[in-house]
Amino acid sequence: MKPLCQAYGIEPLKFKPMSLSETQRGHRKARVGEVISNKMTKTIVVRVERRFQHPKFKKVVTSYAKFYAHDDKEEAEVGDRVKIVETRPLSKTKSWRLVEVVEKVGEVAQVAV
Predict the structure, then answer these.
(1) β-pairing, 43-53 with 60-70?
(2) How far apart are CA 79 and CA 32, in angstroms?
């Protein structure tokens, strides 16, 4: 008995090994927000601001989301602007990790008096 693909004159599927670019991880969400707490060990709480137009009233609305992020080096301080990316769940509430500190709280430009 012939395989079906030969019986119907169809080429059998040939699987090629995936290249390095195809095996890389998929798109991960990234957010920029402000650190509101760093009291936990290797964990920061980041508040992300999202501005959008209300669908019915057309007014610009600001909403905030709070994310727990893993800070392995404990480099973020309260008030810093940080970039976080989505990762596998590290605990019950922590599924984000710190990528970089975008702006330190002490680096804000001084206003001349």
Answers:
(1) antiparallel
(2) 12
What confidence score (pLDDT) does residue 22 get? 47
d(CA 28, CA 106): 30
Residues of the chain with pLDDT under 70: 1-5, 10, 12-25, 107-113
**Beta-strand runs (E) in the chain:** 30-40, 43-53, 60-70, 81-86, 94-103
Contact 107, 71 (CB under 8 A): no
What is each CA distance from 31 to 48, 83, 85, 87, 98, in whole angstroms? 7, 6, 6, 12, 10
DSSP reduced 3-state for 68:
strand
pLDDT at site 107: 64
pLDDT above 90 as % of the chain: 68
- What are the boundaries of each domain within the chain? 25-104
**Span 25-104 CATH architecture:** Beta Barrel (2.40)
